[in-house]
Design goal:
Layout lengths: L9 H5 L2 H22 L1 H8 L6 E2 L8 H19 L6 H8 L5 H33 L5 E2 L2 H28 L3 H29 L31 H24 L14 H24 L5 H24 L9 H17 L18 E6 L4 E4 L2 E4 L10 H16 L16 E10 L4 E9 L4 H8 L2 H7 L9 E8 L6 E4 L2 H16 L3 H5 L6 E8 L6 H4 L4 E8 L4 H9 L3 H4 L6 E12 L5 E3 L3 H5 L7 E4 L2 H8 L6 E3 L1 E11 L4 E7 L5 H6 L4
Parallel strand pairs: 1-2
Antiparallel strand pairs: 3-6, 4-5, 6-7, 8-9, 8-10, 10-11, 12-14, 12-16, 13-15, 16-17
C-alpha cells in the first residue's frame, strides 16, 4: 500500500482506497450476513401459505420483531469490528501512525459501516417489491409505501445503533465493555422512567400510573420490539432517532480528536467520563435493587425498600470501581469519601421528589381554581393493531356539583393518608376501589392523582360522587351509545352459546336508549352489587369521534361491551316483549344435576380473589365433601342468581357446578346468605 502525503486531494484523504479495501476485505462478511438475515422478509412473504390474502399496512406485521432485533444487534457488531483497532494497543499504534488525520480514518470507517448497513436493507426492500409483484396468490398484500417505510425505519434505527456504538467506543477502551455500555445506555430510559416511576408510586402518596403521555416501552430501541405489533414507529419517532444519529456522529469526531492512543485497553478513555459512568452504573443498580426488595418485602414494609437502595448503592459503587480499575483490589483512602458523595447525591434524587415538604401529597386544588374534572384517566380503543387514545374533552365535566363531590372525596383521602395502606395502596385490600382524578385548572395546568382505598371508609363521599350522571356516563362508557350502531349482539352470561343479534335500526335505537337510561339511573348500591350480570351486550358501532382519518384507517367498525344487570328491569322487560329474552334463557330441563362444595375464606388483612373456580370443585384438592342434587326447584333457583368474583379476606362461599344433559358444564358461586331454604336443607351437613 502506497501513501502520498504531498499533493493529496480531498477525495484521497477522505476516501482512501486502501483503507476501504482493507475494511471490506476484513469485515465485509458482516454486510453479507446482514443481507442474508434481512432476506428472510421476502422469503417468508414468498413461502407463506394462507387460505385468504391478508392486507397489511406495514411490513412489521411480517416477522417485524425479528427484523427490529437485527437492526439493534448487527450494526453494533459491525461497529465493534470496524473500530476494534482503537481498543487494542498494537493496531491503535499502527493505524494512528498512518499519514492520515483521525477525522479521515473515522470518515473511512463510518462510510464502510454505512455501506454495509444500507445496501443490504435496500436490496431486501427491492427483492420484497419484486416478490410482491411476482406472486400470483400472495399471503400478504401491501403497497409501496409499506416497503418504503420499512426500509426507512430499519435504516434509521440501524444507523443510530451503529453511530451510538462508535461514539461510546471513543470513550471506552475495551470492546466488550463498549458493547455492554451501548445496551446499558439504551435501557437507561426504560429503567429510569419505569423503575423510578415505581419508586414514586411506592413513596409518593397519590402518584398516578401512566402519567406520561408516551408509552415507556417506546423510548428505548431495545424495549421497542415489544410494542411493534400495536404501535408502528412514526415520522416523529424516526426524526428523534435521526437527530440522535447526527449528534452521535458529531460527538464521535469530537471524542476521537481528544482521545489518547494509549487509552486503548483501558476501561474508560476519558477522565471526565469516569464519574459519569460511576454514578450512572451505581444509580441504575440502586433503582433495580430498591424495586426488587420492595416487591419481595413481607407485610408491605417500606424498610425493605430502603434496605434495597442501600445494598444497591454499595454493590453499584463497588461494581463501577471494579470495572473502571479492571481489578477487585479497589480499596484506598479515597474510596469511602467518594462513595459518601455519590451516596448523598443518590439519596437526594430519591428523597426530594417524595418528601412531604414539597406539598405534592397534600395538594388538593380549590374549587375556584378548577375548570373541569375527570374520573378514570385516559380512554383508549384498539384500531388496526394500534392503541388509539380518545379525545379527552368528552370525559371531563364542568358541573360544579360534581366537582364539589370529587373534591370532597379527594380531600378526605388526603386527610386520611396516614392511616391508609403504608405501601402506597399497592396491596390488595377488601372492598378496594381505585380512584384516578384529573383536574384541569383555570390557569391551563393539569393536576393528576391516583389512590387505591377501601371504599367503605369513604362510603358517603363515594356515594355522592357515583350518583352523578357525569360519573356513570364516563365509568360505564355511555358515550359509545351516542354513535351510529350497525348491530347489537347479546350473549347470556351463564353459557356463551345462548346469543341473539339485533340488526333492525328501530330496535337498535330502542335498545340503546333503554340501556343508556338504565346505566344512568343506577343507584350507588346497584353499582356496588356483586351479583353477576344477566347477559352482556356487544355494540358494534362506527366510532369516529376523537380520531383522525389516519387513525381510523381501514377498520372503522369497533365494538363496546356492556353488562345487562338484573336491576335493568325495563331493559329486560323490553327483551321479553321483543321475544329475545327466552332465547338467552337456559331451561331447567337441560340440566341433569347440580353439585355444591363449600369454600371458607379466613385470611384477615390478606384479601383473596374469590370467583366461580372450576378447579376448586373438579379437582377438590382439599378433599371437601360434595353434595349433588337433581331437584328441579333448586336448579331453577340457581339459574336466577349467581355471584361475580371479588376480593375478600373472609366469608363462606359455595362453588357450584351445573351438569348439562349434553355434557356441558357451567360453574357459578353463591355466598352463604344467598342460599334459599331448599338449598340450606341439602347443604346442612357440609
Amino acid at each position: 500500500m502506497k501513501w502520498r502525503v504531498p499533493g493529496m486531494t480531498f477525495n484521497q484523504l477522505y476516501f482512501n482506497r486502501g483503507i476501504l479495501y482493507q475494511n471490506f476485505r476484513q469485515h465485509g462478511w458482516l454486510g453479507i450476513v446482514y443481507l442474508l438475515l434481512l432476506l428472510t422478509l421476502p422469503l417468508f412473504i414468498g413461502t407463506e401459505y394462507r387460505d385468504y390474502t391478508e392486507e397489511i399496512s406495514t411490513l412489521f406485521k411480517v416477522n417485524g420483531e425479528f427484523h427490529w432485533f437485527l437492526a439493534i444487534t448487527v450494526p453494533v457488531v459491525m461497529a465493534l469490528f470496524l473500530f476494534r483497532y482503537i481498543q487494542a494497543g498494537g493496531p491503535a499504534d499502527v493505524y494512528h501512525s498512518l499519514p492520515l488525520k483521525r477525522r479521515h480514518l473515522l470518515t473511512m470507517n463510518l462510510m464502510t459501516g454505512y455501506v454495509m448497513i444500507l445496501v443490504p436493507i435496500w436490496i431486501t426492500a427491492g427483492v420484497t417489491k419484486w416478490m410482491s409483484v411476482a406472486l400470483n396468490e400472495p399471503a400478504y398484500v401491501f403497497n409501496d409505501s409499506a416497503i418504503w417505510m420499512w426500509g426507512v425505519t430499519i435504516s434509521i434505527v440501524s444507523l443510530f445503533m451503529f453511530t451510538l456504538t462508535v461514539a461510546v467506543g471513543m470513550c471506552i477502551g475495551q470492546s466488550i465493555l463498549q458493547g455492554l455500555t451501548v445496551y446499558g445506555i439504551c435501557l437507561i430510559p426504560v429503567i429510569f422512567w419505569g423503575v423510578f416511576g415505581l419508586h414514586l408510586k411506592h413513596y409518593l402518596f397519590g402518584y398516578p400510573e401512566n402519567i406520561f403521555r408516551f408509552k415507556i416501552e417506546t423510548i428505548s430501541p431495545i424495549s421497542r420490539v415489544s410494542s411493534l405489533s400495536y404501535a408502528i414507529p412514526g415520522w416523529g419517532e424516526l426524526s428523534i432517532y435521526a437527530g440522535m444519529t447526527v449528534l452521535m456522529i458529531v460527538l464521535s469526531y469530537l471524542f476521537y480528536r481528544k482521545r489518547h492512543v494509549e487509552s486503548a485497553t483501558q476501561a474508560i478513555a476519558f477522565r471526565i467520563v469516569k464519574p459519569i459512568f460511576r454514578f450512572g452504573f451505581m444509580f441504575t443498580i440502586v433503582l433495580l435493587s430498591g424495586a426488587y426488595f420492595s416487591m419481595i418485602s413481607p407485610g408491605d414494609s417500606r424498610i425493605w425498600g430502603v434496605a434495597g437502595y442501600i445494598i444497591g448503592g454499595v454493590a453499584g459503587y463497588i461494581g463501577a470501581e471494579m470495572i473502571i480499575r479492571k481489578t477487585w483490589l479497589i480499596w484506598n483512602s479515597s474510596l469511602l469519601p467518594q462513595f459518601a458523595v455519590y451516596g448523598i447525591a443518590t439519596a437526594l434524587i430519591l428523597y426530594v421528589p417524595v418528601a412531604d415538604w414539597n406539598g405534592y401529597a397534600t395538594n388538593v386544588p380549590s374549587k375556584d381554581n378548577v375548570e373541569k374534572v375527570r374520573i378514570g384517566g385516559d380512554h383508549t380503543i384498539y384500531v388496526d393493531n394500534q392503541i388509539v387514545k380518545l379525545d379527552d374533552e368528552q370525559f371531563y365535566s364542568n358541573d360544579m356539583g360534581y366537582i364539589d363531590a370529587v373534591l370532597a372525596l379527594h380531600q378526605k383521602i388526603v386527610d386520611s393518608r396516614q392511616t391508609l395502606n403504608e405501601k402506597g395502596q399497592s396491596r390488595i385490600i377488601p372492598d378496594q376501589e381505585s380512584v384516578r382524578v384529573d383536574y384541569k385548572l383555570k390557569n391551563g395546568k393539569t393536576i393528576s392523582r391516583q389512590y387505591t382505598v377501601q371504599e367503605s371508609r369513604f362510603q358517603q363521599e363515594f356515594e355522592h360522587m357515583k350518583n352523578f350522571e357525569d360519573y356513570k356516563a364516563v365509568s360505564y362508557g355511555t358515550y359509545a351509545l351516542d354513535d351510529d350502531v350497525r348491530s347489537v349482539g347479546i350473549r347470556s352470561r351463564l353459557t356463551s352459546d345462548r346469543a341473539v343479534y339485533i340488526s333492525n335500526p328501530q330496535l337498535i335505537r330502542e335498545f340503546k336508549a333503554l340501556l343508556k337510561a338504565e346505566i344512568l339511573d343506577q343507584t350507588y348500591e346497584d353499582q356496588k352489587s356483586h351479583w353477576d350480570s344477566y347477559a352482556s351486550a356487544e355494540i358494534y358501532q362506527d366510532y369516529r369521534d376523537g380520531l383522525s382519518s389516519k387513525q381510523i384507517l381501514n377498520q372503522p367498525n369497533l365494538s363496546s361491551t356492556y353488562e345487562i344487570k338484573p336491576t335493568y328491569t325495563r331493559l329486560i322487560a323490553w327483551l321479553k316483549e321483543n321475544k329475545l329474552y327466552d332465547q338467552l334463557q337456559v331451561s331447567v330441563d337441560e340440566i341433569a344435576s347440580a353439585q355444591f362444595i363449600k369454600q371458607e375464606i379466613n385470611s384477615p388483612g390478606k384479601a383473596i380473589y374469590v370467583y366461580p373456580d372450576p378447579q376448586f370443585i373438579d379437582e377438590n384438592l382439599k378433599g371437601n365433601k360434595k353434595v349433588a342434587t337433581k331437584n328441579k326447584e333448586i336448579i331453577s333457583q340457581l339459574l336466577q342468581r349467581q355471584r361475580s368474583g371479588y376480593y375478600t379476606d373472609q366469608g363462606i362461599f359455595y362453588q357450584i357446578k351445573l351438569n348439562f344433559n349434553k355434557g356441558q358444564n357451567v360453574y357459578m358461586m353463591l355466598e352463604e346468605d344467598d342460599l334459599t331454604e331448599d338449598m340450606r336443607a341439602i347443604l346442612i351437613d357440609l
